[in-house]
Amino acid sequence: MPCDRVTRRGFLAGSACGMFSLATLRLPAELSALPVLEVEAQVSGNERRYPLPTADGATVDRASQVILVRYAGHVYAMSLVCPHENAAVRWLAQDGRFQCSKHTSRYTPDGTFTSGRATRNMDRFPLHRDGAQIVVTIDRVYQSDKDPDGWNAATVNA
Ligand code: FES
């Protein structure tokens, strides 16, 4: 089944890239003991499918600019792009948060803005669970300042 094949390949790619990811990404303190993997999505139109995270941590899909975070019983799909001026957002293990690489806006692990030049939280993609997969729709995002209810609802229970 293509889905399973892609999923396994994604997991293998994640394993293969895990060392690279650990060297280049930084985890929030709450997640610092957990793996950060890069993964390939199963691509179908505007949908990206990922294995349901089985433990707290992050999965990065650089090709689609999506980061999946499982944290505190929830899974989120957030944009890797800072909502201020579209720079990359990174994990900072020593501080337990995301931080923008350009103007250092700060965000909690669930994408909540805490300080800096940005004026809203990290954007979240719509997502839903389909069995053992998370399906993310990447042609739209919820912006916390324009659609706070949508932004808050853009999560699934882990
Ligand atoms: S681009 Fe991220 S704070 Fe400016």
TrEMBL record:
It comes from Luteitalea pratensis. GO terms for molecular function: 2 iron, 2 sulfur cluster binding; metal ion binding. It holds the Pfam family Rieske. Residues 49-136 form the Rieske domain. This is Arsenite oxidase, small subunit. SUPFAM superfamilies: ISP domain (SSF50022). It comes from the Bacteria. Keywords: 2Fe-2S, Iron, Iron-sulfur, Metal-binding.
